[in-house]
Amino acid sequence: MSAAPSTAGAPGTRFSRLGLHLPGLALNAVAFLAGLAFWWAITAAKLVVLPGPHEVFVRAIELAVNGQLALDIFSSLKRVLTGFVLGAALAIPVGFLMGWYKIARALIEPYVQFFRMIPPLAVIPLAIVTMGIDEAPKIFVIFLASFLSCVVATYQGVISVDRTLINAARVLGARDRVIFPRVVIPASIPFILVGVRIGLGSAWATVVAAELIAAQSGLGFRMQQAQLYYDLPTIFVSLITIGILGLVMDRLLQAAERRLTSWQERAQ
Amino acid sequence: MTHSKLSFRNVSRRFGEGEKSFLALDRLNLEIADGEFVTVVGPSGCGKSTAMNIAAGLMGVSDGEVLVDGKPVSGPGPERGVIFQQYALFPWLSVRQNVEFGLRIKGLPAAERRRISDHFIGLVGLSDFADALPKTLSGGMKQRCAIARAYAVDPTMLLMDEPFGALDALTRVHMQDQLLDTWSRERRTVFFITHDVDEAVYLANRVIVMAARPGRLHKIIPVDLPAERNEEVRLSKEFAEIRNQVWHSVYHQKPLIEA
Ligand SMILES: Nc1ncnc2c1ncn2[C@@H]1O[C@H](COP(=O)(O)OP(=O)(O)OP(=O)(O)O)[C@@H](O)[C@H]1O
Ligand SMILES: [Mg+2]
Fold it and tell me: Which family, according to the similarity comment (chain B) (predicted)?
């Protein structure tokens, strides 16, 4: 895929990008520091019975040095990525099938719509009873969460492909088997990527909750353990790690999305 | 008798069902000879695009039949090039990749594709933008890219839906002359929809005037002007007369009391 041409408008773009992003970043930093100061102030003044930033930072270093943090991150990420990749890998073809063939749509859509109404976490008790308490039920629940959000987005993407683009391809001599890879797939990529992002978000939310219920490692499990010992700094470290990892994954996908859909006309 | 390249035989098209159905095209009969250039004018909503889509094989008829080279149309084909009212460029492909789309489907080798796309991109004046994505082009440039894409597959018939609508006056005249030039050299059959009465007369052998509600054929006005069209023709008295005649039949149509 070719990048946007560097002809007209490049200096203007660069200028406005600097003009927009620098104060934006500076403001972000100000907000971050203010939040930190606020947290420090209320805990130092003993207004709330919570650990302060210093205490949490020390615990984070401890957990990082003894390897426990890395192990927890690794277990949680492994579950999320396994479930998510399986879910997305199944959802994308199924979504295309539903969008392209009316019969497939009529057969599958009622199930998708129905299961979408059940929060993935509500499936955990059933999954534990039927699959035991090791990895399988957790991965299954994450798989379900990411599958459902991806499948709907892909299917929406395919049915909203502009008819005139399909017609343009047909009058140039393209048959269905060419139109599908050359027109339908590229035209639905923006939708699919939005679905993938939502899917990863819900997978991440689900894994932590699943680990709270039954696990031997992972960020959710660690918090659950810490809760038993009233270990608030560890709970904070886990929560912050969950937030940061979620944010990083989302930003990576967003960057991929930007690259893959740079051809889209965007309202400025 | 010259044989017809494109024939509409009693073609009707209805949208919707029952009470709320709408007759967009009412028993259209039209014979277009091989190598003929017809322009189609008429008020908005009179079924011009509908007729074109049917000829392109993108839309079925409710009644009647459409023949191309004497054979009933059953779908689109690359021998009928289409330029849509909305440019319909593939936004993820560059200008060149758009122009080469039909050539890839034909299975031409890369060097051959390149040669053809260079030629047609040059013809529409987009050489400096060959690698640009459609989102970076103006409306007129998009339209020119769509024109190059349709010309590139070398169709024997061109179905054009207001192809020059988004162009500025200067480019428009240039594109009109280009089209006439290609047409007179290669004798393609052209079915050309426009809102511009001057354009309709300047380009055509015959002007097809349509009427609305229901969409139907109103009048066929032959254009008896020299085959070679140029500025002189455009400014002639004969041109002005035909132009007035077309203008009158488009803008002073008597409303039909619908049955
Ligand atoms: N897919 C459709 N469904 C329902 N009605 C339609 C459809 N396509 C066209 N029509 C109706 O048929 C009539 C003719 O439409 P058409 O697009 O052929 O008009 P047109 O002559 O090309 O108009 P314009 O000059 O504005 O492009 C219009 O009244 C339109 O509302
Ligand atoms: Mg139209």
Answer: Belongs to the ABC transporter superfamily.
What is d(CA B222, CA B28) in angstroms, rounded to the nearest whole number?
18
Q: Render B118-133 in DSSP notation, one character per residue.
A: HHHHHHTT-GGGTT--
- pTM attached to this predicted model: 0.80
Q: Which of residues 119-158 of A touch B (CB under 8 A)?
A: none
Which residues contact ligand 1 via a Cβ below 6 A? B 15, 22, 24, 44-50, 85, 215
Which phi and psi angles does B4 have, rounded to 5°? Answer: -85, 135
Instruction: Name B135's Cβ contacts closer than 8 Å, sequence gap at least 6.
Output: A4, A263, A264, A265, B91
Both structure tokens of B87: 């440019």
Q: Which atom of ligand 1 is nearest to the CA of B51?
A: 18
Q: Distance from B10 to chain A by nearest Cα, in Å?
A: 24
Q: Which residues of A touch B90 (CB under 8 A)?
A: 165, 168-169, 183, 186
Nearest to residue B204, comparing CAs of B165, B171, B239, B164?
B239
Shortest CB distance from A170 goes to which of B76, B129, B132? B76
Nearest CA in chain A to B83: A168
- Give phi and psi for B154, each to the nearest 5: 60, 60
The answer to whether residues B193 and B39 touch, using CB atoms and an 8 Å cutoff, is yes
**Residue with CA at minimum distance from ligand 1 atom 29:** B45
Structure tokens at A59: 């615990």
Least CB–CB distance from B88: residue in A8, A168, A262 = A168
Low-confidence ranges of chain B (pLDDT < 70): 1-2, 254-259
Give tens-digit pLDDT for B60-78.
999 999 999 989 998 998 8
Ligand nearest to the CA of B50: 1
Instruction: Collect all residues with Cβ–Cβ distance below 8 Å to B132 and sequence separation of at least 6.
Output: A5, A7, B94, B95
Q: Which residue has the tokens 């949680």?
A: A76
